[in-house]
Amino acid sequence: MNYQTYRHDDHPVVTLSIKGLGDIVIELFPEVAPNTVHNFIALVNRGFYNGLIFHRIIPGFMIQGGWGTEDLKPIKGEFLSNGFSNDLRHTRGVISMARTSDPNSQTSQFFIMHQHAPHLDGQYAGFGGVISGIEIVDMIAAVPRDHRDRPLEDIVIESATIDLKGKNYPDPITR
Known about the structure:
alpha+beta, globular, 11% helix
């Protein structure tokens, strides 16, 4: 399903303030990938993303961030090919969790879709969508980068904040 289908006023909203560019505002969808959302909320709440960078940028595909040096416990991937019913499509603006080839290796890295990528549907845990600041995603996708798709100049997440809309969310279940 398109992420606009899941939008609801009481969902948690994350604001990523990108140094020198502006804010990307993301609505999280707990009913789509609950443990992934709980994991992201826990990381935002403890300031994990503050000061990290978007380290992989592929124009026309996605921008990826959230890699840190801390050793984190992984969570089970909430996507169809891993036995979890998640029908959120990887369309422009969707946020999804990155992982290795191990389907249960999600930790902190996430990517935001710059354009549609249907080959990712059912393979990665989409868990929200950009509701404001898609033009910032476009600006990030356009920066010069090296042969490894790393930006030549750091694109820094100055801060990540969250509005939980008065709700409480449990800690994620880790492996």
